[in-house]
Amino acid sequence: MSKNKALKNTARYAYGRLWRDWLRGHAPVLGFTFLLMLIVAAAAAGYAKFMQMIIAAFEVSSPTVIWWGPLGIIGLVIAKGLSQYFQQVLQNRVLSRMQADLQAKMFSSLVHMDLSNLLAESPAALAARFSADIELIRGATRDVFGSITAILTVIATFIVMISIDWALTIGLIFIFVFAFGPVGVAGAHVRKISSRTQEEIAHMTETVNEGLSGIRMVRTYRLEQRLTDSAKSSFEKLFKLRVSLVKWQAGVSPLMEILGGIAIGALLFLVALRMRSGAVDLAGFIGLLTALGVATNPARRLGASYASALQGMGALDRVYQLFDTPNTINDGTFEFADGDKARGHLKFENVNFEYPDGYRALHDISLQIDAGKSYAFVGRSGAGKSTIFNLLPRLFDAQTGVITLDGRSLQDYALPALRDQISVVSQDSVLLTGTILENIRFGRADATREDCMRAAKAAAAHKFISKLEEGYDTHIDPSKTKFSGGEKQRLSIARAILRDSPVLLLDEPTSALDAQSENQIREALDKLSEKRTTLIIAHRLSTILDADQIVVMDQGRIVDQGTHEELLENDGIYAELFNLQFDMSPASTEPVPKRSFGGDVRAKIKNPLSGLSKWLGL
Predict the structure, then answer these.
(1) d(Cα 179, Cα 292) in Å, to the nearest integer?
(2) Are the beta carbons of 545 and 515 closer than 8 angstroms?
(3) Does residue 130 sit in helix, strand or coil?
(4) Which of 80, 208, 230, 557 pairs with 177 at a CA distance of 20 to 30 A?
């Protein structure tokens, strides 16, 4: 989602689409509000006509005017007031519904958006759209509805004025029409500045969120001043944009008021001429003056509403841009029959991948992964290990090459069917708002409570869950949860056990745990990985020594592959990494240690650092 995309939507397109997609369903209610607007406009314009009639009655000394005059004015005021009240209540209901629907559509678009597009903007900046952009659209739409009332009032008032003196009225109409020339120029600037302001608000939110979320690191490295300067720069940009925006907005209403004053002055001059010629009497003069006063305020509001509507177009541009961002990861058609699963045979054929920022992560990857076997991926940071994991559930698609599951291209599978075949356990265990039971059940929506409890027991999570006051019904608030890293990880493993997928991706699942928690997690992972195609990313080589195959990657390429013993004999990158971790001499004749996820040491490491390595959980 480019932040610099040119504004290309016209008002007709922007608000026409808003009507078609989010307002047309409320047409009956909006039709009734339009009827109320007509009553408001008729009552406002009728006030001027009534004044003419009252003055005319006074001129001929009609005795009945003492009754019907006040009652008529009171009736008009009551009709206008009640109509405005119900119009605003109904209109607010429709606008609130539109706002909620837009937010729901925006969230759905983000959730289903390709990661390559989603990651182009920070979460904080995207979150700002839910408040700033949508609120601006709501306000602009409210002002557009208000402008309809204003337009109807002006039209009704001019009709009354024409009935009094058509020549004067036509002259005044030309004056008001002339006003919209400079208003249009100001409006174009308002729209452009408004769009830039919304973008800067998103950037400011991102800056503030970045500083506060990393406050510990900021304090430790004494970065307070740097972050303060960065935030201040964003605040200053917003200050200048807001000043510029208000400058253009503020010019619209005074312009309309000045032109309204000119119109009144012209009216007085022309009326004086018309009265001298006998074309207009005193009652007509009072009626025209009252009508012009009635029309001036709605006409002035039209200028402000126009500026607000252009601001709303800037926000609509940004929202539609998000809605219209195309996904490149398209759904396939193949689905498994009920009860069937993949065998888990994976194959990479000449796979190349480049991230949207141009970084080439994989170069001509060819690899065969047998079903039910364990494959560990090792290498320095940036070697491409995580990219391999991202391609399997099709979070991204390779630019060239083919990845197959059981001989069928991943792109042929329906995305839900493909992703149901894959479970992930990573170093960052994600818990969502809900109960513990619900968080485990995310692994399989139709699972019973007993199924979830069995999975929790297999993941060594049942014990700590049972100690909680509400057990499996304990509510989780991710922002306030006090679960330890090991407890979160065990819930994540329980979720994967419940899912029972044939392909398991383990992305550094024990890297952030203490030694005791790590041993418990490894035992759970042993059970989870049985009879599954298991792919493991691990920097602690002691956790993958007994993998069926170890794939060594460097700078996006596979540079070596084999068992632990074979790779040590090759004396390549793997041997270098292993020797760095275990201080093993290439000439050592001692048997190589093999450990499962459960930490079962099959042979002791005879080297000076073995005791320290074991104590550290390496």
Answers:
(1) 16
(2) no
(3) helix
(4) 80
